[in-house]
């Protein structure tokens, strides 16, 4: 989350520099601001992609553990092996619980992205920065998708 805050702050600072440079006629300041903003946006996209890849990996692991646990439970029950059945039930339950935790975390991240997107859109409106408004709309939509997964 600290990386997200840092990237967002750098986007805002870059946008402010760009606007100030353009308004006051300092092309070097405007260019530096545009560069800073662009680098922060790119860094955030990379960070978001890493988080999503980790989430998908955990989902696959949870699904596999749930299936294996269910199979152990069924085999243990079928062949009268209570310890295998209990081990399988516990493995399946742990995997399902972990998936619920991961889903709740995704909901929280989604709500954060929605809020961040709304803020970016407002800042874009105030600074007349069309690309920030578009980025804000994209971030808000990303958050809505995360909350609906």
From TrEMBL:
Signal peptide: none annotated. Residues 124-149 are annotated as: Disordered. InterPro entries: YjbJ_sf. It comes from the Eukaryota. Residues 124-133 have a biased composition (Basic and acidic residues). Residues 139-149 have a biased composition (Polar residues). Keywords: Coiled coil. Residues 39-66 form a coiled coil. This is CsbD-like domain-containing protein. It comes from Linnemannia gamsii. The lineage of its organism: Eukaryota, Fungi, Fungi incertae sedis, Mucoromycota, Mortierellomycotina.
């Amino acid at each position: 989350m600290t990386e997200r805050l840092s990237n967002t702050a750098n986007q805002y600072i870059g946008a402010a520099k760009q606007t100030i440079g353009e308004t006051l006629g300092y092309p070097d300041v405007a260019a530096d601001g545009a560069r800073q903003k662009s680098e922060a946006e790119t860094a955030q996209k990379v960070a978001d992609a890493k988080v999503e890849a980790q989430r998908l990996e955990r989902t696959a692991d949870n699904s596999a553990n749930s299936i294996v646990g269910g199979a152990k439970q069924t085999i243990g029950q079928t062949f009268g092996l209570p310890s295998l059945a209990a081990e399988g039930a516990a493995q399946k339950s742990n995997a399902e619980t972990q998936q619920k935790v991961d889903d709740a975390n995704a909901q929280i991240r989604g709500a954060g992205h929605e809020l961040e997107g709304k803020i970016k859109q407002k800042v874009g409106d105030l600074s007349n920065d069309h690309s920030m408004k578009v980025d804000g709309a994209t971030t808000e939509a990303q958050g809505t998708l995360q909350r609906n997964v």
